[in-house]
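Appendix B: complex inputs.
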Amino acid sequence: MKEKSSVFSRFGDKKNRGRLMSFALVIIAYIAVEVLLKTGSLGSMFSSLLVPITCYVVAAIGLNLNVGISGELNLGQAGFMSVGAFCGICVSGILANSISAGIPRLIIAIFCGAILAAVFGFLIGIPVLKLQGDYLAIVTLAFGQIIKSIFMNAYIGIDTEGLHFSFVESNFKLQPGGKMLLNGPMGATGTQKIANFTVGTVLVIVALLVVYNLMFSRSGRAIMAARDNRIAAESVGIPISRTKMLAFVTSAALAGAAGALYGLNYSTLVPNKFDFNTSILILVYVVLGGLGNMTGTIISTVVLILLPELLRSLQDYRMLIYAVVLILIMLVTNNEWLMTKWKSLFSGKAKGGA
Amino acid sequence: MKKMFKTSLAVAMSVCMAAALTACGGSGSASSSAPADSGAAAETTESADTGAKIKIGGSGPLTGPAAVYGQAVKNAAEIAVEEVNAKGGLQFELNMQDDAHDPEKAVTAYGVLKDWGMQASLATVTSAPGAAVSPSYAEDKIFAITPSGSSTSVIFADPDNLSGAFGNVFQMCFTDPNQGTASADYISGHADLGSKVAIIYKNDDNYSKGIHDTFVAEAGAKNLAIVYEGTFDDSNAQDFTVQLGKAQEAGADILFLPIYYDPASLILTQANGMGYKPTFFGVDGMDGILGLEGFDTSLAEGVYLLTPFSADATDELTVNFVNKYKEKFGEVPNQFAADAYDCIYAIAQACEAAGVTADMSSADICAKLVEQFTSMTFSGLTGSEMTWNANGEVTKSPKAVVIQNGVYVGVEE
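Resulting structure:
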């Protein structure tokens, strides 16, 4: 017993250990990848996956705040990513002439994407958070569809006369040399690719900082109290809507930031990319990683993105095997017997180490 | 006892999973250094030949809703590569990766191909993924010709102004604007088809919308009467009775369908159910409708499509290709297959003319092939005397075909 407490005092209590582990994981992974990149032993395939992985990790961390900590099933995370992505692309396109350096423009775009997504999150949150459970899930699902439809029909162009915006395509004609930032169903094409892995990693760390600080703050405890027992929380004077709104908006902002990074990593982006399937995909990352478990979310996201790519050698059976492996992972990670064995193995190691 | 069984099952499962994971990881990393991974080996049939081979990459939707196109391209490209290799001399090796019609996956597939050491490429089968990888092809100086990525964003960095062509990305198919214009020209030039046009198109799909926009513009110029325009999108692509009813009400006797064959098959079925029988007119996306499982092909009788390839043509090249394709894959090749076949032969012709060998770097090959493609003429399945301009656009004449007795038949001009 004494030994155990000394371990705790060295690494902090349980919550701090989890927190440290997340940061350590991200930083070690970053250093490892950078070393591989510098020595050139990381292939083009893995290099091309680095930025999308950080994007999905950030979006999944945000969703975990919403689903795991706040306990509200959100099926519209891809909608917020979409808002962030197209906002980021537009901002980057508008600033392209005034700020030629990629990194500052990327950071501004990510900020704008996060803020706009947060505004959307707030507006959506007003009606949504009056609902609970399944009803809330369905409304967020509808929100994702609405966002997709809006971007399907939005036309934004920039030329020497300034910015043009329309919901009917033939409404404006650009001057020669003008550029369509957003072209309805064709989405954004010819985007300058300015996203990079370092900024992505920093964004992951910022997301972790935000979520952990919120989780262990007074507001975070209120959020969890509201999740665990709404009536009891209300009876001690916690404003339920406000605390839930805080988690919802933060989650949306993180998704927006992730979206902006994602959008600026590809030269083309269609609104269809952020459909219901993408929302579910992010939810799968969160559920597999464990509700409320940020380290788990990071690991599961990375594994589930890499898996189909590593299965490429299986050719036609790739997606079949992917589905089977996904089912097996879900079964195994939810198997109590294996989990206890795993935990005992882990604590045994910790004892030996101390 | 039961618990015992359960736990052992769980352990067995986890072992299987771990084995699968390590196996995949192993072969995944091996493929970057050794070209003879299982995929490549399966695709090159005559690996016994000595001598280096020119590595041709490409990606397409081998899974997912657009898989028909990816598979067709892959199959036809395999046939073409086999034929080229059998001739002796120039030797090719093909590696088609799956991109599931997703730009994100296409970029990853490009990475896989680059790791594999691709020296020339079929780019992508579909447009949106093509637009995502074309800048990489331009940056890495790898020659690419897409069989069917028809959007202008595949070959132009700035598709709004049709400027900033990548220069080393070429198209074997028409661009979308050309298809719309050619369709409107054809309909206005053949008054017997009908005079009042209705259009049903998919407004969240850039292929469909691109063709629709140019069709409407050209129809305006040719005084073609468009009496109804109906739209649908991903979420309501099952029921077209409303759009069909309105088209019928408007008295349309020709229905232009710039959409893929999947929703088109539903439109044909539902129009038949309503007793509405206009002339149906499609573009290259309609190609493949006869191969759709569970579709009553008699409903497609009399459907017109504008496509550069018809499988019933009697020239030796087409007959040879169609027979081989049928023999090997058990179905009649569509236009995507023909485009892919032509792509491989065009690359082969250019390589021979420029004296490209397998030991050259991809950038050298790229420079030589670009020079050849912009100066040579090529005759293949999808047209004769094709030429390419410096932007990578092809010049060839579209053919109208009509479906008769369950096969595509060329329409005599």
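Chain B has a mean pLDDT of 81.
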